[in-house]
Amino acid sequence: MQKIILITLIIILVSMPAYSKRMFAEAEYQNYWCSNHNGITEYELKDFTRVDCLTETQAIEFDFANKWAECIGQSLHYGLMTHKQPACVLIMERGNKDLKYLKRLRRVAYKKGIATYTIKPDVLLKNLLINTP
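RESULT FIELD:
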């Protein structure tokens, strides 16, 4: 019975992009990644902006791939405010279609000292499978 429920859940989650714009909310990626990197989510700064994930060495902004430029701007601001290295985690839900955005991000990030990372929905799907009773 658990296998049937699990398979049904996987089918629903995999088919979700056909019915919705995003597979998972940005916050779900953020919470998963940040907890696995010993970070603090939604760290509030003096100017009342919030760093998506603050680690010991980095101020990290998460954005979906098509919002790569916003990721750069926000991470630079957070880096200045926290005196930590700015970083972007690009959410890659559309596979090869998102590569053009990743290339743009990396070209600018390299020149501005922004660390870059990616996360894909399969990481969250695997996490769901592992934590399903």
